[in-house]
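We close this part of the discussion by returning to an individual protein. The encoding preserves chain order, so positions in sequence and tokens coincide. The sequence in question and its structure tokens are set out directly beneath this paragraph:

===
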Amino acid sequence: MNRTKKITKKHMGKVKKANAKLNTTNKPKYVSKAERERLATLEAQEGVSIVAE
């Protein structure tokens, strides 16, 4: 690999990382199936305790 190609590759890598930081998405973070189930059971228990009071 020649010197110019090495320099270009390094520069393009930095540009790519900078562009990736700028283009963030509003997509919600992934929550696993087990975690969703656990949260649902906690919410259900919390609802039962509120009704019982």
Summary: The mean pLDDT is 88. The two ends are 74 Å apart (CA to CA). The longest helix spans residues 3-22.
